[in-house]
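Explain this fold:

***
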Amino acid sequence: MKELSLDNCRLDKRYDIQEQLGRGSYAEVYAARDILASTQSPHSRVVVKALNVFLQDDLDDGLERTLVENFQNEAIALDRVRHPNIISRLGHGTARDLHGTVFHYLVLEYLAGGDLSGLLRKQKIPLRQSLNYIEQICAGLGHAHERGIIHRDIKPHNLLLTEDLMTVKIADFGVARVSISDSPITRVGTNIYAPPEHSPMSAGQTGALAFARLTPSADIYSLAKSVYTLLTGESPRAYANGPVTELPDAVRDEEWCEELLRVIKRATIDDARERHQSVEEFWADLSAIRRIAADGEFSTVLKSVESIPQPHVARGYTPIAPDLPSFEAISERPPIRVGVPTYARPVFVRDADGPAFNVTKSAAAIQTPELDPPPTPPKRKRRVLRGFAGFLIFAGIFTGLLYGTASYMRGRGVLPAISNPFAARTATANTDIYLRPAPNTDNDPVGLVTKNSRVRIVNSQNNWYQVDIVEQGRVPPSQVSATRGWLNGKYLNIGGS
């Protein structure tokens, strides 16, 4: 077993490796900084997933080609199912590590909120928020099924969150399968969440199943057990490779307990033909629980419960995918030229079409290698530079004096305080909600704000907010003219982009 050496490395003169996030049976995952991205960009930090075929102890040419093909197929699957609630591929490449080992890599978006299993260990997630997550997962998974892709490893660990914890995205399509494929079903997934038709616990026992074909209901089985974990806070370990028959004692007094058990029982039946046959059907079957989560406040919230799961779009998402990679087996690639290392702390830099270099990374910056010392600038150029530097110093001192004088006069009340006219807060609606003409429900609605709509807050009173609609989350079911009105704060996520 041989790990890649990527400490203090820069890939393709763009991605600075920062830390290793994990390692699997065939790949290593790193957090990296994209030096070409703006610091304000949601993709200034990225994930580099590096294929390492040498993690396999019994590597041969056939296994190597299979691993490379699977790695490329992961990129193809990610681009094929590109969706706001599925992790996005941002790029790819091929490079050498500091010991000369060639590897392929994919660049994925970095989701700073961690995974759902980690969030559950920190806190109990409220029912309304849990249902928002489930809706987003259903939207992404349903989109993947429409594109003919079955994930085969849905579990809380593969459901990642944005930094604001508002958006969840499905990750790790490394074992995904095209649903129309006739190839034999392989044993993949996690025992606790995988259905019997492809669970590693079912090896050699598939023949005992009444129906053993791979269909989207395999993902619905795993999704149902993930919903069990999300709503109960406990893992369905007692029901590994079998249907769920009971819920934990801690939630049996909840109003939604019986409805949840009914839905999950059906979704985890051994016979795939008796489960929900689509994600939309599964989501619709949760409608009673969603009504309970609305607290019966139908004077404010729409009475109709959306039957089709709606996506949630986070900042930075684009439906446009990068160019597809065309990876080759490592042993079949021509050698990559590597420069002679001449610095103490190497950073690997390589252009896609050029040679590789080792350069120095100091604590302050990463320097680009120079084959020859830079020429000494002429005297005239040095005089110009000195004059420009003097001007900057003078301008800085003058500006500081003006700022200090203005601050002093404002403090004495001579000058009025300066306010920021662009400091208005924004918010995102977390459900469909009526727009009111006054801050109460003793009136008729004047409009509708749909779920995930962006609004700008212009006034507030108690827990009510007067808002302008900036962008509707989706087209409203009826024509409405009002774009300003009052909303109850419990249905707003303040500060949403």
